From TrEMBL:
<dbReference type="InterPro" id="IPR051535">
    <property type="entry name" value="Siderophore_ABC-ATPase"/>
</dbReference>
<feature type="domain" description="ABC transporter">
    <location>
        <begin position="5"/>
        <end position="241"/>
    </location>
</feature>
<dbReference type="InterPro" id="IPR003439">
    <property type="entry name" value="ABC_transporter-like_ATP-bd"/>
</dbReference>
<keyword id="KW-0472">Membrane</keyword>
<dbReference type="GO" id="GO:0005524">
    <property type="term" value="F:ATP binding"/>
</dbReference>
<keyword id="KW-0547">Nucleotide-binding</keyword>
<dbReference type="InterPro" id="IPR003593">
    <property type="entry name" value="AAA+_ATPase"/>
</dbReference>
<dbReference type="InterPro" id="IPR027417">
    <property type="entry name" value="P-loop_NTPase"/>
</dbReference>
<keyword id="KW-0067">ATP-binding</keyword>
<dbReference type="InterPro" id="IPR017871">
    <property type="entry name" value="ABC_transporter-like_CS"/>
</dbReference>
<keyword id="KW-0408">Iron</keyword>
<dbReference type="Pfam" id="PF00005">
    <property type="entry name" value="ABC_tran"/>
</dbReference>
<keyword id="KW-0406">Ion transport</keyword>
<protein>
    <submittedName>
        <fullName>ABC transporter ATP-binding protein</fullName>
    </submittedName>
</protein>
<keyword id="KW-0813">Transport</keyword>
<keyword id="KW-1003">Cell membrane</keyword>
<keyword id="KW-0410">Iron transport</keyword>
Amino acid sequence: MRNVLEARDLNVSYGDNLILEDLNLQIPKGKITVLVGANGCGKSTLLRTFARLQKAKSGDILLEDDQLHAISTKEVAKRLAILPQGPVAPEGLTVQQLIKQGRYPHQRWLKQWSTEDEKIVENALTVTQMTKFADRPVDALSGGQRQRVWIAMTLAQNTDLILLDEPTTYLDMAHQVEILDLLFDLNENEGRTVVMVLHDLNLACRYAHHIVAVRDKQIYAQGKPEEVVTAEMVQAVFRMDCTIIKDPLFSTPLCVPHGKGRSVNEEILEEVGIS
């Protein structure tokens, strides 16, 4: 399987605080990869380092066959797009104006706004189902709609690789599934490589081709959800006891946390395979 991103012996720190240490990771091209792990384990830092928003202390990052540090900033923006956690648009900016910002890396002194730029922006509006909101201020939209606009802006960059840091944070369940369905369709229909950080392990299993579990500054495990997500992994990474069963709709791993709650019928537990 060809890799679009690769980290080799990567070390990243904030001052004297080492966040990632001797980390090695391969991101498969044309797949959805989800980073999971406990709060503060370095998932977002890794994503920012891949986008060159955070400088590595040492080690190498390859963007396909090129050393990331050797590529110009504008060229990086033409090859990967990142949506950080909780972005905020300037007050009064319309949906279309924000999406147009995604075309900035493709502008040159002798090549300003073009018909091609217009078509790409219109396509981003269409794909994210935001066309009817084009002239509406971003700050007047719902949380799910705003997230769609930001994704549309990253699509307007027209990159094959999209990085997203917790794209479903602060969204209700329906909007979480809506955003993840959109990203799934982009991968299925357009072949975009998607790398994202998610907190919900069950949604990660449902949507990911490739899961990466981060623990203690390094990669604890990576591979297909059914290979990576086990009760042992959840205990090691999240320090939580659980039972893993099969999702009745998607046949992916489903994590059932242990803990206190109302008592349940023992027959139901046996039926779903929890003893």
